[in-house]
Amino acid sequence: MNASQFSTKQRILGAAEVLFARYGFAGASLRQVTAAANVNLAAVNYHFGSKENLIEEVFRRRLDDLNARRQAALSKVEKRADATLEDALDAFIRPALQLSLDRSGGGAFMRVLARAYAEHDDRLRRFLSDNYGHVLREFVVVFHHMLPHLDKEELYWRLDIVAGALTYAMADFGVIKRKSGISEQSHRERAAEHLVRFAAAGLRAP
Amino acid sequence: MNASQFSTKQRILGAAEVLFARYGFAGASLRQVTAAANVNLAAVNYHFGSKENLIEEVFRRRLDDLNARRQAALSKVEKRADATLEDALDAFIRPALQLSLDRSGGGAFMRVLARAYAEHDDRLRRFLSDNYGHVLREFVVVFHHMLPHLDKEELYWRLDIVAGALTYAMADFGVIKRKSGISEQSHRERAAEHLVRFAAAGLRAP
DNA sequence: CGCTCGATCAAACGACCGTTTGAATGATAC
DNA sequence: GTATCATTCAAACGGTCGTTTGATCGAGCG
């Protein structure tokens, strides 16, 4: 009998996401993952081939959606003649925020993503760059039109800073202690608002 | 015979720093560490008691110095009546930059620090908060005087963003590909310059 | 010299790791 | 009913993990 309405693959992916977020890729074992997912240990190698492949699938499941949302939001911005810098930033940041607020594990995924940055693993970096680099390049074009006083290299530097601050904020790294009355969700929403305002000013700097 | 002029403890700390940066706390084994340090496997448990304690010592060795440098730089800023926001930011960022440029492992340490944020480990967070906390609070006071239009909570949010962007930049997380002609050191120096300019504008935002 | 004691060493401990195997299961097609 | 085939299962594989043990080393000292 299944302990859930979801398929074995989906349950493994969900459990892996949470445990990778909490203990890291090396720190979370397949025995922990399969126990949490209520599936047999061998199921990971049967369905995914290896732990390495499982890690990639954890990313693919969320990033396909995240990038589609970002591209859709950016398209809307491009079609409006009066779009502001804040609108473009919002198109980049809000999809990440929404994903982090997703009821089933989105918050965990943002921490997994932050871990991926920290890993500095070449294979993982190439995987992320190959599959999702083109979306970043589209954003660069739009920002370049909105900030004509910045040359391409300067713009890249600043967007890199924005990406860093976003990763940090969405992964809830910060030292700001969430007040007991405030949910993780509204905490992240506040973070996103502050981030858009801060990043807009930073990008506009001479 | 020793393979180095440094003591066993120092060699373990140095090797651990590099390997924790590269493979993470769970991913780097004590066998790797002791082999790289050219010491016996049992030396870690003899000198540090456990792997967990070794991790804390890796932090303590660098953070004591980083905090002292930040406090000294901040004191100079406080004594000058004409100090600018950029000066205060510099007092916070430059010590981290200098540490990251330290010949022996400072760059690795900044990546270890970024991993600590990603770990979300309560014990590690408390340890860092105890070491970082009071210095951060001193910076808040100075920034508060320089940015009277921001209330305390708003200021905390923005400084948290700055800390995130700094961590990200110093750990070399970014997607900006270092050109082959540019050393890691001058890459980090560029990052720090951009960061100060960006953060100053972001903090000054209405 | 003989004694002491912190430091280093090879070896082993039990536990856990990712992966593989081959049998059992159960729905589908003939 | 029976053959098929994807899926699930318990068990085991060889390795690596952090830690512990007891022997050995070697400088300092009476």
Q: What distinguishing features does this structure have?
A:
homodimer; 206 residues; mainly alpha; Arc Repressor Mutant, subunit A; Tetracycline Repressor, domain 2; 2 domains; 9 helices; globular; DNA-binding
CATH-defined superfamily of the largest domain in chain A: Tetracycline Repressor, domain 2
Task: Sum up the overall morphology of chain A in one term.
Answer: globular
- Overall domain count of chain A: 2
pLDDT averaged over residues of chain A: 89
Assembly type: homodimer
- Report the largest inter-chain contact: A-B, 48 and 48 residues
Order of helices and strands of chain A: HHHHHHHHH
Major pleated sheet of chain A: none
Uncertain parts of chain A:
none
Radius of gyration over C-alpha positions of chain A, nearest whole angstrom: 19 Å
Q: Kindly identify the CATH topology of the largest domain in chain A.
A: Tetracycline Repressor, domain 2
Could you say what the CATH architecture of the largest domain in chain A is?
Orthogonal Bundle
Number of strands of chain A: 0
* Share in β-strands of chain A: under 5%
